[in-house]
Design brief:
With about 750 residues, the protein is mainly beta. It has 6 helices and 40 strands. The strands form 4 sheets. The chain has a 22-stranded antiparallel beta barrel. Strands 2-3-7-8-6 form a 5-stranded mixed beta sheet. A 4-stranded mixed beta sheet has the order 23-24-28-27. The model is unreliable at about 1-35 and about 120-135 (pLDDT under 50). It is found in: Cell outer membrane.
């Protein structure tokens, strides 16, 4: 505990000095923004100084972070990078950063974009561009090396898709104008189990013919060994019934390539871009369950071996042409994206102590095998036109088209169960689709919009309307049934930004947003053991969820590079989409249930977000940069048991740290500390409280000349743990009376990870 407090203090101490700097270190120099001209490869590899959050001049509230803001801590993925920005929480396993919970809300409330466009995802399971059962988007397989910058869009505008209740995260990949020259990257990572994985990649950008080209490739070894322990009681502070110890190792390799070419054509600009990511991953979970907590062979109740092999490919191709025409600026954009995912899973469980007869008589083995195949394609098109109006405003209007098609083929073999002491297991049967598992899903959207924007002195403003039409069709080939739905929603939005002084600005934004039911929520397929040991089945008649939101904030420039800001947000949500327990028994037997989704009334979400990113120039420490962001989050919704927060919303998210540059030595070092607050979830039959330990990361960097950087980083240095308590009940009445079926405590822990990475520019 003393070690934790001391290390955290090292990170926090410089912030007291930053408070003094805020009042004195003011200048009128322009704020850094995304590069309009290519930077040299040497500038990317050998950073001349400490990078801070960019202050954008967009009317809508947007926070912007360049890759150089994150890079010194060597994030592996976009998820790792997002851990350092305001209000981003995760409810993932330790060392995993997959489903983004912006403002602590379920991942389905956050719109994830790649270069401003949505990308198909897995929709279930995990892995590259994967998702949960709500159709949310996983970011833990987007390699950090592909990123140019990350934008946090707090409030919607008419020219962006409205499915962003909590906000949007736009991950902008490097394009042809991002780099001049090239660099290579190579290194190794050592994990807590002493295994070493490799990482290697490279990027090059330059003039090719009449245009500019950027190409990059990356190979990233991934590994995450964890230990889990579960204690199960009859009730809190009651009798211990059994315990379980589990090893959980995720091991795999990610491969990625990206390219961008930009060239002038016929008086306009043509941009072509594409990327491809492949994930090859194995998840190996092995567990032993004991009677009581006496971990001897005589007390073994079950031995379980559960393996999942994941193979996933994601790709995207886009083309955009923009030129002056028709009295303004017109752009046409076409896109094609795809996702193919395959998961092969098997689970073997040996049950002991089923009777009083000594092993092996009376004991049994249960064996299950299943496959999931998903094939997603998405075609998009945009026609947009901007023109200046006579009274100093700008008119923008357009039409956006999107068609998404998904084929799913979920199959399994009949359960293979036999009693011991039979020596040879019976042969597995043939794979066959599960109920609803052979299906197609089509969604067509046609969204016109119009937006006015303008500037008058210190005031900037925008206002617009977006009309989103959605047609959904689902065909269940296992039953021959089809389901159709359509939604038409008008989404107004408006934003203002006012520069009080050269260093101070105020903004406010309001927008109506929408959350559509995902394919998983609509599909009638029963997905066995989709939510832990519980099953999930969708409902084709669900309505979309809508929300009215307000963001009000203030930003202050601190010197040449620093910025501090505070934002207050509120969301009023109607027709909430939430998971619930149907009460039906699940496929795993006693104590498991079938979950589904429903429109669960209305709710409210609110919070305060503060962020600081600044050098300490005012006190003579121009080579010291400090970082702090803190978000206090809250919400309210009523369910069968009364008032609660939105399920699994963390109470707060804190990031704090510093970087010290040593120019004379050509070196630097830094520390960050992250902590997110407790999260609580309640449905019929189960209540879960989740807490996370703090995450401490450090780096040491040595620059060699103008072209080489060597960096050693350590993450999870406090051996962060995830703790969950489960209150389990059989009926609503039991839950109201606090008559427990089971009380479970689970702890998951992983050790530190060390990386040694070298980059060389050429």
């Amino acid at each position: 505990m003393k070690k934790t407090a001391l290390l955290a203090l090292c990170a926090i101490a410089p912030l007291a000095l930053a408070a003094q700097a805020a009042a004195a270190d003011l200048a009128d120099a322009p704020i850094a923004t995304a590069a309009e001209e290519p930077v040299t490869a040497s500038e990317v590899v050998v950073q001349a100084g400490i990078a801070y959050r960019n202050r954008t001049e967009e009317t809508a509230p947007v926070l912007e972070y360049g890759l150089d803001y994150f890079q010194r801590f060597e994030p592996l993925s976009a998820g790792d990078a997002l851990k350092r920005v305001p209000s981003v929480a995760f409810l993932s396993d330790v060392l995993e950063s997959d489903g983004v919970r912006l403002r602590g809300l379920d991942p389905a409330y956050t719109q994830i974009l790649i270069n401003g466009e949505k990308v198909p995802g897995a929709g279930s399971g995990s892995g590259a561009f994967g998702a949960g059962a709500d159709g949310s988007f996983f970011v833990d397989r987007i390699p950090a090396e592909l990123i140019e910058r990350i934008e946090i869009v707090r409030s919607a505008s008419a020219n962006r898709s409205g499915d962003a209740v909590a906000g949007a995260i736009n991950i902008v990949l490097r394009d042809a104008y991002a780099l001049d020259g090239g660099f290579v990257r190579a290194g190794a990572m050592m994990f807590d189990d002493k295994r070493i994985r490799e990482t290697v990649g490279g990027v090059w950008g330059g003039q090719v013919g009449p245009g500019r080209l950027l190409i990059g490739a990356n190979l990233q070894g991934r590994r995450n060994p964890k230990l889990k322990t579960s204690l199960r009681y009859d009730e809190p502070n009651g009798t211990l019934d059994n315990s379980e110890v589990q090893t959980d190792t995720r091991n795999g390799t990610d491969y990625s390539v990206n390219a961008s070419y930009q060239v002038p054509v016929a008086g306009g600009d043509l941009s072509l871009a594409g990327f491809f990511v492949r994930t090859d991953r194995t998840q190996d979970e092995d567990s032993i369950e004991y009677a009581k907590d006496i971990r001897t062979n005589a007390n073994i109740q079950t031995i379980n071996n559960n393996d999942v092999q994941i193979d996933q490919d994601s790709w995207s191709l886009t083309g955009k042409y923009k030129r002056d025409m028709l009295g303004g600026r017109t752009s046409v954009k076409l896109g094609y994206a795809g996702f193919k995912g395959k998961e092969d899973e098997f689970e073997d469980e040996i049950e002991y102590l089923r009777d009083a007869i000594p092993f092996p008589d009376g004991d049994r083995i249960t064996r299950d095998k299943s496959r999931r195949d998903i094939d997603d394609t998405e075609v998009s098109a945009k026609l947009e036109h901007e023109r200046d109006l006579s009274f100093g405003a700008e008119l923008e209007f357009g039409l956006q088209y999107e068609k998404k098609e998904r084929d799913t083929y979920f199959t399994e073999v009949p359960r293979n169960r036999y009693n011991l002491p039979q020596a040879n297991p019976p042969a597995f049967g043939a794979y066959a689709p599960i109920a609803g598992g052979d299906s197609t899903f089509e969604q067509t959207r046609l969204d016109p919009y119009v937006m006015l924007s303008g500037k008058s002195g210190a005031l900037k403003w925008e206002a617009g309307l977006r009309y989103e039409t959605t047609d959904v069709s689902i065909e269940d080939r296992t039953s021959g049934d089809t389901y159709d739905a359509d939604y038409k929603i008008l989404l107004p939005s408006a934003s203002v930004r006012y520069n009080l002084t050269a260093s101070d600005q105020f903004y406010a934004a309001t927008a109506r947003t929408v959350r559509r039911p995902s394919f998983e929520y609509l599909s009638p397929a029963t997905l066995e053991a989709e939510l832990g040991d519980n099953d999930f089945i969708g409902v084709p008649t669900l309505k979309p969820e809508t929300a009215w939101g307000l963001d009000v904030g203030y930003e202050r420039r601190l010197g040449r590079a620093g910025v501090a800001g505070v934002n207050v947000f509120y969301r009023k949500v109607n027709d909430l989409l939430e998971l619930y327990n149907t009460g039906d028994e699940g496929s795993e037997g006693d104590g498991t249930f079938v979950y589904s989704a429903r429109n669960a009334g209305d709710g409210k979400v609110w919070g305060i977000e503060f962020d600081l990113s600044t050098p300490l120039t005012v006190i003579g420490l121009e080579n010291t940069g400090v970082f702090l962001n803190y978000s206090w989050l809250d919400s309210d919704i009523d369910d069968e048991f009364g008032s609660r927060k939105f399920n699994s919303q963390s109470d707060y998210v804190l990031n704090v740290g510093f970087i010290q540059d040593l120019p004379t030595w050509g070196a630097s070092f830094g520390v960050t500390y992250r902590k997110q607050g407790e999260a609580y979830s309640r449905v019929v039959g189960e209540e879960v409280t989740t807490t996370y330990g703090g995450d401490l990361e450090m780096f040491v960097e040595k620059r060699i000349g103008k072209d080489i950087t060597i960096r050693l980083t350590g993450s999870n240095l406090l051996d962060a743990s995830k703790k969950e308590s489960f209150n389990k009940f059989t009926t609503i009445e039991d839950q109201l009376d606090r008559s427990f079926d089971e009380y479970e405590l689970e702890r998951e822990q992983a050790g530190p990870v060390f990386q040694l990475i070298a980059r060389m520019a050429f």
